């Protein structure tokens, strides 16, 4: 197993933190190291998720804790990754434009599409910074989770290009069993923005509930049970 970070991943880490230490927040310039969160000798991989940019002082501090003489409190992996992600977000959030997304049965010609076909619109509301995005749509019928839709473009794996002041309009199929059902039908949509530095920014999911009598949807708060 190659447990060294690739040069491309090192560059991404440095861009994402703007060459600031992800523990103390100090601007480092060239005095910065890409540290393995799980050490290589303990099986730590060269995956970018195992990397954290550190100044030389923090790099030394994080490695000198001695479990045999436990003075102080050791940095735990969860804390290290959380601090790293907070710093990454601090220096890349400006690359994420305002995005609007919605599911709808309305067609451009004024007609409505019938179930099991569902339309989705994703719109870039900003004036600059093109991005990429992915979408995953999860279907619930009554108290049953029917899973992510099978349409390949809406499983969260395909990347779409999105230019400023433009939108993408598409559609996907929900399971046919929902058509004749009278149970509560809900779709939760997960959108992830990929910025120009190739960092992923998951947006909070939104949920829509189907109104069968008018073939339309209303937005409903989406909790943590996703």
What does it look like?
Strands 5, 6, 7, 9, 10, 11 and 12 form a seven-stranded antiparallel sheet that branches. Strands 3-4-8 form a three-stranded antiparallel sheet, with no helix packed on it. Strands 1-2 form a two-stranded antiparallel sheet. A hairpin with a 5-residue loop joins β9 and β10 (200-202). 15% of the residues lie in helices and 33% in strands. α1 crosses α3 (77-92). It is elongated and about 65 Å long. The protein has two domains: 7-94, no CATH class; 97-220, Sandwich (Immunoglobulin-like). The chain has helices at residues 7-17, 56-63, 77-92, and strands spanning 32-36, 51-55, 99-104, 117-124, 131-141, 144-148, 160-162, 167-173, 185-194, 200-202, 206-211, 216-220. With 226 residues, it is of the alpha+beta class. The longest helix has 16 residues, at 77-92. The protein is built from three helices and twelve strands.
Strand content: 25-35%
Annotation, overall tally of beta strands: 12
Give the uncertain stretches in residue-range form.
Answer: none
Order of helices and strands: HEEHHEEEEEEEEEE
Using the coordinates shown, work out and report the CATH topology of the largest domain.
Immunoglobulin-like
Number of helices: 3
Helical amount? 10-25%
The CATH homologous superfamily of the largest domain is called Immunoglobulins
| Gap from first CA to last CA | 34 Å
Q: What class, by secondary structure content?
A: alpha+beta
Gross morphology is elongated
CATH architecture annotation name of the largest domain: Sandwich
Biggest sheet character: 7 strands, antiparallel
């Amino acid at each position: 197993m190659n447990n060294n970070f690739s040069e491309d991943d090192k560059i991404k880490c440095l861009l994402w933190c703007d060459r600031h230490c992800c523990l103390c927040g100090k601007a480092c310039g060239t005095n910065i190291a890409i540290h393995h969160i799980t050490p290589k000798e303990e099986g730590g991989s060269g995956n970018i998720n195992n990397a954290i940019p550190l100044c030389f002082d923090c790099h030394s501090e994080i490695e000198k804790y001695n479990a045999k003489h436990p003075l102080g409190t050791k940095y735990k992996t969860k804390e290290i990754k959380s601090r790293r992600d907070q710093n990454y977000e601090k220096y890349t959030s400006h690359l994420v434009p305002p995005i609007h997304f919605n599911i709808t049965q309305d067609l451009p010609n004024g007609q409505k599409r019938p179930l099991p076909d569902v339309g989705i619109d994703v719109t870039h509301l900003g004036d600059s910074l093109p991005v990429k995005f992915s979408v995953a749509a999860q279907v619930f019928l009554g108290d049953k989770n029917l899973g992510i839709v099978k349409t390949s473009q809406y499983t969260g794996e395909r990347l779409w290009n999105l230019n400023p002041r433009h939108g993408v309009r598409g559609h996907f199929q929900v399971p046919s069993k929902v058509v004749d059902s009278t149970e509560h039908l809900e779709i939760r949509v997960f959108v992830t923005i990929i910025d120009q530095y190739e960092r992923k920014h998951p947006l909070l999911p939104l949920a829509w509930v189907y109104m069968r009598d008018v073939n339309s949807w209303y937005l409903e708060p989406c909790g943590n049970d996703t």
